[in-house]
Design goal:
Elements: H1 6-15, H2 24-44, H3 48-52, H4 71-84, H5 87-95, H6 102-121, E1 138-146, E2 149-150, E3 159-168, H7 223-241, H8 253-260, E4 267-271, H9 282-300, E5 306-310, H10 312-324, H11 326-329, E6 332-336, H12 338-353, H13 358-364, H14 370-378, H15 382-407, H16 409-426, H17 431-451, H18 454-465, H19 469-492, H20 496-512, H21 516-535, H22 537-547, E7 549-550, E8 560-561, H23 562-573, E9 579-580, H24 586-608, H25 626-644, E10 664-665, H26 671-675, H27 677-693, E11 719-722, E12 725-728, H28 735-745, H29 751-757, H30 782-794, E13 809-813, H31 829-832, E14 843-848, H32 849-854, H33 866-880, E15 886-890, H34 901-907, E16 915-916, H35 929-932, H36 936-953, E17 960-965, E18 968-971, H37 985-999, E19 1005-1009, H38 1028-1045, E20 1063-1065, E21 1071-1073, H39 1083-1086, H40 1096-1105, H41 1116-1125, H42 1142-1145, H43 1155-1159, H44 1193-1198
Parallel strand pairs: 1-5, 2-9, 5-6, 14-15, 14-19, 15-17
Antiparallel strand pairs: 1-3, 3-4, 7-8, 10-16, 11-12, 13-19, 17-18, 20-21
Keywords: ATP-binding, Kinase, Nucleotide-binding, Serine/threonine-protein kinase, Transferase
Protein name: AGC-kinase C-terminal domain-containing protein
GO molecular function: ATP binding; protein serine/threonine kinase activity
C-alpha cells in the first residue's frame, strides 16, 4: 500500500526538506516512521458523507470502515491479540486509531482458521505449510505445550502438542500446497475440523537386535576441534595476562567462534495446527509420527526417513513404540533434542561443582547472587548457566596457564607473539574484514602452538601435576566444561561429526551422575545416529550438509537444535496473560488451535519490520559487541580475584580436596570418587554399550544408580520395605490420618491395638526429635550449681580456691596413700618443687580445654590466623592458672564413629559442617568460631594443634604443663604417659586427677575447670509415652553411658558393642540410634503411597509418567476400575464418553450392586457409624471449645490407652 500524497508531506514534517540522511540505517528508520504515521492517518480519514451525516443519537460514533484498513492497523491488532488476548488493551489502541476493533480482529482470526481448514481438505485432513517445497529435505520436532488458562475452578486447562516443520529457505522446487486464501468471515463460527487420533496401546518393551556392532569412540574429540578450541583459550587467556595494558579486545567463546565459523543456510520454520492432546499419550505420539511421515512423503517421497526430534520424556516412549512397530522403525529416525541434552549435562556439571568453591566464587565476586547461583547449578536458565561455566572455565584456565608458563617461560613468549596478531584482528573496525583477519591470525596462532609442541608439553605437564588433588579436580572440571562447549558448538555450526563425538564424550557425565533416562537411551541414540551412514546414506549427507540444526539468520555460529527452535516457536505461540474460556468453548478452542501457528508467523513478521524479536537488525554475533566483551572480561576478572583472595588452588599440593573459597575439607572417603569421576563415567558408558547396545541385556532392564559422592553429598532417604515394595517415609506422611481412613473399612486393622503398638511417626516423639536426634537432657547442668551451693554450706569457714574468676572451679585434695600411677615414669617429687611463692601446698589445675576455646564467642581483630588463635589460647590458659604449680590440659577425642555424633550435629542446629585446614597460616579472620568448630575433624585437628602448641610455648615455663588430646599425652618435662582411649574429656579429667594425686604430695590441691557434668538423668515428659519397642532400645543405650562412667579412672576403657545396645549402622557406616523395633505404622497404612520421590517435583513427574503400583490388599476388580479412572487422557477416562456414568455401573467392581434398589434406598449399608457424645460442628459457636463434643483430635488421640506399657524397673539397674 502506497501513499503518494500523504507520505512526502509527513516525511517533510518529520525531517524537513532533506532527501537523504547520513546513513542508510537512519534513512530506513525515518521511512518506516513516516509510513506508520501515514497509515494511521489513512485509517482515521473520514469521508465527506461521514462528516456531514447527522446520527440519530448524540452518543453515536463513526462506523468502522473496512475499506480504510491497512497493514499497520491489521498487523498491530493481530499481534496484540496474539500476544495478550487483552480486549481492553485492544479497545484502547482502537480508540486512538492505531488498530482495528477487537470484534474485527476475532473475525480475522476466524478467517485465518477457516483458511487452514480449507488447506487440510486438499490433503485428507493434513495441514501442509505453504512454504513446504518438493524435492528438499524436511525435518521435524515435537513437544508438549501448556497454556496458562484462567478457569473458575483451576481445572480443565488447555494442553496441546506442537509439531514444528523445518526446511531450507529459498530451496528450489515447487510448493507442495498453494498459499492460504484468507477470505472474510461473517461470524465467529469455524469450519468444523477434527484430527483423527490414532489408537495406540502401550507397547511391550522389545529387544533391540543389532545387525552391526557399535564401536565406542575412545579417542574423544578430534584433534582439529581441540586445537581450534585451545587456540581461543590461549589467545583469550594470554591477552588478559598482559599487565598494565587496556582490557583485551578478544571476544569470549561464542563471539570468537563466530569469527572463525561460516554462515549456515537459513531455515524456513513453520508448524502444524496444535493437537488438542497431551504429547506423552501413546495415541498422540503415533498420530504425530504419521502426520510428519505423510508430510515427508509429500516433500521428498520415500528417499528419506522421517527425522523428528523429541525431548527425553517423549523420546523414551517413541523408541518403545518404534521397537514394537518394525514397519515404522524402518521409516522413522527419532532424535534426542540437543537443548534438553545440554541442559541435562549442565545439571550434571552443576552437581559436580556444588560446594567446591566455584559456586561460592560466583557469589563472592558479586557476579551472580545466591538465588541465581542455585538456578545455574540446576540449569533452570540455559544461557545463564552456560555463561557462568564459561566464566569459571576461563578464570581457572588462566590460573593453570600462569603456573604452566611459570615453569615453561619460552612457551609463554611464543604464545605472546601469536596472540598479539589475534588481538589486532579482533580490534578491526571494519566488520566485513574482521572475520577474515581473525581466521588468518588464528591459523598463525595454531601454527605457532604446533611448532612449539604446546599441546604435547601441556598434556605432559598436566599428567605430572595430576598427583595433586586440587589440581586434578580443577582440570577434571575444565575438561567437563570443554565437552559441553564442543556439543553446543556442534549445534551452532550444524556439524554432524562433532555432534556425535561430543555426544559420546557427554556420556560420562550422564553415567557418572546418575541421569537414569540418559544413561539408558543416550547410547542408543548415538548408535542409531551412526547407523544412518549405512542404513540411510542420503539422509546422512543431508545432516552433514547442515540439516542437523535450525538457522534463523545469516550470522555465523547461531544455529540451534530442532528441539530448541521448537521451544522458541512454542514460546511465540504462548499468550503472555493466559487464556480465558478456551477449554469450555469448543468453537473458540478450535479457532485458537487452528489459527495460532499462522497467527504467530504473522505476528513475527509484523514485529520484524520494527526490529523487534529478530536478529535481522544485527550483522554480527551479539558476543562481538564491545559491551558484551567488556562485560565478559569484568566478570572473569571478578571470579578470578575472588578465588585468588583465598589462595591459588592450582598450586595446592597433597591428596586433600577442599572448598577453594572456604577451605572446608572434603571427606577423605569421597576424594577418590571425585578425582576419578570422569574415568568412572567413561567406564560405565563402555560397559553399558557392551552389555545392552551390543549385548543380550535388554535396553529396558533396570539401570543401576551409582550414587557417586561429590563435594555436596545428597540427602539421605528413609525407606521401609513391605514385602516386594520399598516405601519412602517422611515426617510429612500422615500415617495416623490413614489409620482413621482404614480403621472401619479394613477388618484386619484394630485401631486400639495399632495406637498402642505403633508410633505413627518416623521417630518416637517421647525420645527423639523429628529429625531423628535423641532428645538431650537439658537440666543436667543444674546439678553442678546444687553441688557448689552444698559445698559452700559445708565449708563456709574455709577459703575458696582461686580460679581466675571461673565459677566452675571445683577443689579436691589428693589422697596421700595413692600408689605410683601405672604407665607414668617415676619422678622425684622434690624436682617438682612447691608452690611458686615458696609457701603452702602444690596446686594442680585440671582444665577442660575446649571450654576455653568456646568462650571466644567474638574474636578480636588481632586473631587473623590459626597461629594467632593458639597464642591467644595459651595466654588465656596461663592467665586462668597463674596461681597454680601444675596445669593439666585435657581435650575430647573426636572419633568418626562416635555415639556423640548425633548430639554434636544437634548443636549445629541443622547447619552443614565445614572442615578447615588447621595450620599456622590458615586465615580465620572472617570465619566465626561456631563455623570453624562445626566439623568434628576440624575440632580434632585443632585440639591436637592447641595441645602441641601449649607444650611448645611452655617449654621454658617453671610450671609443669601436661596436655592430652586424641589419646596422646605430652608434657614440657620428662614425664611420659601411656595412650588412652577415652572419648570424653569428662572421664579423662578424672583419669588425670588420679595420676596427679599419685605423683604429688598428699596435701596437693586439685582444682577442676569444667562446666560439664554427665549424670544419669531421667526427665518426666508430658508427651505420649513411648511404645515398648522404642523404650527397650532406649534402656539399652543407657547401659553404654553407665559403663563408660564406671571406668573413668582407667586409661584403656572397655566398651559395650553399640550394635548390641540400641544402635545400628546405616548404609554409610554411621552409627544411628534404633528408634523402635517395629514399623512406624501397620503395613496396610504404609502401602498407601502410590508414588514416591525425593521432592515434590520428582513426585509430580512420576505421577505423570510412571505406572501406579497398587497395594496388595486391593482386589483385581478394584485395581481395574481405578486404572480406568486414573487414565491420564481425559477423553479416554472412564465415564468421560457419551454413556457417562453408565460405564461405571457396568464395571465388575459394582457387579453385586442393584442400582435401582440403591437409588430407592432399599439397600442396607455395610456398616452404620456409631456416634457417641459428638455434637455437629457449628462454626458460629466458639464460646466453649473445650466442652464435650468439641474435643480436639489431638487430645482425643492422646486419651487413647497405650497397650503393654508396663516397665520392668530391673532393666534400669
Amino acid at each position: 500500500m502506497t501513499f503518494p500524497v500523504t507520505f512526502p508531506v509527513i516525511r517533510w514534517i518529520i525531517v524537513g526538506p532533506v532527501d537523504e540522511l547520513e546513513t542508510e540505517k537512519r534513512t530506513s528508520v525515518i521511512d518506516r516512521l513516516t509510513l506508520t504515521v501515514s497509515q494511521n492517518i489513512h485509517y482515521g480519514f473520514k469521508s465527506n458523507r461521514q462528516v456531514k451525516y447527522k446520527p440519530s443519537r448524540d452518543s453515536a460514533t463513526f462506523r468502522h470502515q473496512q475499506a480504510r484498513e491497512n497493514p499497520q492497523v491489521l498487523g498491530l491488532a493481530l499481534t496484540v491479540h496474539h500476544d495478550t488476548r487483552n480486549k481492553k488493551l485492544m479497545g484502547l489502541l482502537n480508540t486512538q486509531g492505531y488498530c482495528v476493533p477487537h470484534g474485527r480482529t476475532l473475525l480475522l482470526e476466524t478467517a485465518l482458521a477457516n483458511a487452514v481448514v480449507e488447506n487440510t481438505k486438499q490433503f485428507r485432513g493434513l495441514y501442509v505449510p505453504p512454504f513446504l517445497k518438493k524435492g528438499t529435505f524436511v525435518f521435524f520436532a515435537a513437544d508438549n505445550t501448556d497454556f496458562a488458562e484462567d478457569t473458575a475452578d483451576g481445572k480443565g486447562t488447555t494442553h496441546g502438542t506442537i509439531v514444528a516443520v523445518y526446511q531450507k529457505a529459498d530451496a528450489p522446487g515447487e510448493p507442495v500446497a498453494p498459499p492460504l486464501t484468507i477470505g472474510d468471515a461473517n461470524s465467529l463460527s469455524v469450519t468444523p475440523y477434527h484430527v483423527q487420533m490414532m489408537h495406540c496401546d502401550k507397547p511391550k518393551p522389545q529387544p533391540n537386535k543389532r545387525t552391526k556392532q557399535f564401536a565406542v569412540n575412545k579417542d574423544g574429540i578430534s584433534g582439529n576441534y581441540q586445537q581450534t578450541h585451545l587456540g581461543w583459550v590461549i589467545a583469550y587467556a594470554v591477552s588478559r595476562l598482559k599487565t598494565g595494558e587496556n582490557s583485551s579486545k578478544i571476544p569470549c567463546w561464542a563471539g570468537y567462534n563466530s569469527l572463525l565459523s561460516t554462515s549456515q543456510p537459513v531455515t524456513q520454520i513453520g508448524s502444524l495446527p496444535l493437537l488438542p492432546e497431551v504429547a506423552h499419550e501413546w495415541s498422540t505420539l503415533l498420530t504425530v509420527i504419521m502426520q510428519t511421515s505423510e508430510l515427508r512423503r509429500l516433500a521428498v517421497g520415500e528417499e528419506h526417513p522421517t527425522v523428528i526430534s523429541f525431548d527425553m520424556a517423549l523420546y523414551e516412549k517413541v523408541v518403545q513404540l518404534l521397537d514394537a512397530r518394525p514397519d515404522l522403525k524402518r521409516t522413522v529416525v527419532p532424535r534426542l533434542g540437543e537443548l534438553h541434552a545440554v541442559m541435562a549435562a549442565l545439571r550434571a556439571l552443576g552437581t559436580s561443582i556444588e560446594n567446591s568453591g566455584i559456586d561460592d566464587a560466583w557469589i563472592e565476586a558479586d557476579v551472580y547472587g545466591a538465588a541465581t547461583t542455585r538456578q545455574i547449578l540446576k540449569c533452570t536458565h540455559y544461557k545463564r548457566s552456560l555463561r557462568a561455566h564459561i566464566y569459571s572455565y576461563v578464570a581457572l584456565y588462566e590460573l593453570v596457564l600462569e603456573e604452566f608458563f611459570r615453569e615453561n617461560p619460552q612457551m609463554k613468549e611464543d604464545c605472546w607473539q601469536a596472540t598479539e596478531q589475534v588481538e589486532a584482528a579482533c580490534s578491526e573496525e571494519d566488520k566485513s574484514a574482521k572475520a577474515e583477519s581473525a581466521k588468518q591470525a588464528n591459523a598463525t596462532l595454531l601454527e605457532a602452538l604446533a611448532t612449539a609442541e604446546m599441546v604435547k608439553a601441556f598434556k605432559e605437564w598436566e599428567t605430572q601435576k595430576a598427583q595433586n588433588a586440587m589440581f586434578r579436580s580443577i582440570m577434571n572440571y575444565l575438561h567437563r566444561v570443554e565437552t559441553v562447549l564442543f556439543f553446543v558448538a556442534a549445534s551452532r555450526n550444524a556439524d554432524l561429526a562433532l555432534h556425535l563425538q561430543a555426544a559420546e564424550a557427554l556420556s560420562k557425565l550422564f553415567f557418572a551422575f546418575d541421569w537414569i533416562k540418559y544413561k539408558r537411551l543416550w547410547p542408543r541414540y548415538i548408535a542409531d545416529m551412526h547407523d544412518l551412514r549405512t542404513n540411510h546414506p542420503e539422509t546422512w549427507k543431508e545432516l552433514e550438509a547442515g540439516n542437523l540444526s535450525v538457522t534463523r539468520n545469516d550470522i555465523p555460529f547461531v544455529s540451534i537444535g530442532a528441539d530448541h527452535a521448537c521451544e522458541h516457536l512454542n514460546k511465540q505461540m504462548k499468550v503472555h496473560s493466559g487464556l480465558i474460556g478456551i477449554s469450555n468453548n469448543a468453537n473458540a478452542r478450535q479457532r485458537f488451535f487452528m489459527a495460532t501457528p499462522e497467527l504467530s508467523c504473522l505476528s513475527r513478521e509484523f514485529k520484524s519490520q520494527f526490529g523487534i524479536g529478530t536478529a535481522g537488525k544485527n550483522t554480527e554475533h551479539p558476543g562481538l559487541g564491545s559491551c558484551d566483551i567488556r562485560r565478559d572480561h569484568e566478570a572473569i576478572d571478578k571470579i578470578k580475584a575472588a578465588i585468588l583472595s583465598h589462595g591459588n588452588p592450582v598450586t595446592a599440593e597433597g591428596d586433600k580436596l577442599y572448598n577453594m573459597i572456604t577451605h572446608a575439607y572434603v571427606p577423605q572417603e569421597y576424594v577418590p570418587q571425585i578425582l576419578n569421576i570422569n574415568d568412572t563415567g567413561q567406564k560405565l558408558y563402555e560397559d553399558y554399550v557392551s552389555e545392552r547396545i551390543n549385548g543380550e541385556i535388554s535396553l529396558w532392564a533396570p539401570v543401576k544408580k551409582e550414587n557417586n559422592k561429590m563435594f555436596m553429598s545428597g540427602n539421605k532417604k528413609s525407606t521401609v520395605k513391605i514385602r516386594d515394595k520399598t516405601v519412602d517415609l517422611k515426617e510429612t506422611k500422615d500415617l495416623y490420618g490413614r489409620l482413621l481412613i482404614l480403621a472401619r473399612s479394613n477388618r484386619h486393622i484394630d485401631q486400639k491395638h495399632a495406637v498402642g503398638n505403633y508410633e505413627f511417626t518416623q521417630t518416637p516423639r517421647a525420645l527423639f526429635a523429628p529429625n531423628g536426634d535423641i532428645l538431650p537432657c537439658t537440666d543436667k547442668s543444674k546439678l553442678i550449681h546444687l553441688l557448689e551451693k552444698l559445698a559452700k554450706e559445708v565449708t563456709a569457714d574455709q577459703d575458696q580456691p582461686q580460679g581466675g574468676g571461673e565459677k566452675m572451679a571445683k577443689e579436691v585434695t589428693a589422697d596421700q596413700d595413692q600408689p605410683q600411677a601405672a604407665g607414668e615414669a617415676p619422678m622425684d617429687i622434690e624436682t617438682l618443687g612447691s608452690s611458686q611463692d615458696g609457701h603452702g601446698s602444690r596446686k594442680i589445675a585440671l582444665v577442660y580445654g575446649m571450654v576455653v576455646v568456646q568462650k571466644l564467642t567474638k574474636k578480636p581483630a588481632t586473631l587473623v590466623t590459626v597461629k594467632d588463635l593458639s597464642e591467644w589460647f595459651y595466654g588465656r590458659l596461663m592467665s586462668l592458672t597463674r596461681d597454680y604449680d601444675e596445669v593439666v590440659l585435657v581435650f575430647d577425642t573426636y572419633k568418626p564413629d562416635s555415639l556423640k555424633r548425633i548430639t554434636r550435629e544437634k548443636r549445629r542446629q541443622g547447619k552443614d559442617p565445614i572442615q578447615y585446614q588447621i595450620r599456622d597460616d590458615t586465615n580465620i579472620k572472617n570465619i566465626p568460631m561456631s563455623r570453624l568448630l562445626s566439623h568434628d575433624q576440624t575440632k580434632a585437628d585443632l585440639t591436637e594443634y592447641l595441645a602441641s602448641k601449649t607444650v611448645e610455648y611452655s617449654k621454658d615455663s617453671p610450671k609443669l604443663v601436661i596436655a592430652s588430646a586424641a589419646g596422646h599425652t605430652e608434657s614440657n618435662s620428662q614425664l611420659h604417659f601411656e595412650g588412652n582411649n577415652h572419648e570424653e574429656a569428662d572421664t579423662l579429667l578424672i583419669h588425670h586427677a588420679v595420676l596427679a594425686s599419685r605423683r604429688n604430695p598428699s596435701d596437693a590441691q586439685l582444682v577442676f575447670f569444667s562446666p560439664d557434668t554427665d549424670v544419669l538423668h531421667m526427665a518426666e515428659s508430658d508427651k505420649l509415652p513411648p511404645t515398648l519397642g522404642a523404650l527397650k532400645q532406649h534402656v539399652l543405650r543407657a547401659h553404654i553411658q553407665a559403663r563408660v562412667w564406671g571406668q573413668a579412672d582407667i586409661a584403656q576403657q572397655e566398651f559395650l558393642d553399640p550394635l548390641q545396645n540400641g544402635y545400628y549402622k546405616d548404609k554409610d557406616g554411621q552409627l544411628k540410634p534404633v528408634t523402635t523395633e517395629f514399623l512406624p505404622a501397620p503395613e496396610a497404612i504404609i502401602e498407601m503411597t502410590p508414588f514416591n520421590g525425593n521432592d515434590q517435583e520428582e513426585i509430580c513427574d512420576r505421577i505423570l509418567t510412571e505406572d501406579v503400583q497398587y497395594p496388595s490388599f486391593l482386589s483385581k476388580e478394584a485395581v481395574l476400575i481405578i486404572q480406568k479412572l486414573l487414565c491420564r487422557s481425559p477423553q479416554l477416562r472412564l465415564g468421560a464418553g457419551e454413556r457417562d456414568a453408565q460405564e461405571l455401573r457396568e464395571q465388575l467392581f459394582f457387579r453385586e450392586i442393584d442400582w435401582s434398589a440403591l437409588l430407592a434406598r432399599k439397600i442396607q449399608p455395610p456398616f452404620v457409624p456409631t456416634i457417641q457424645g459428638l455434637v455437629p460442628f457449628d462454626s458460629s459457636d466458639r464460646s466453649s471449645p473445650g466442652r464435650r463434643g468439641h474435643q480436639p483430635v489431638a487430645a482425643a488421640f492422646f486419651s487413647l490407652p497405650r497397650a503393654n506399657l508396663g516397665i520392668n524397673v530391673s532393666l534400669l539397674s
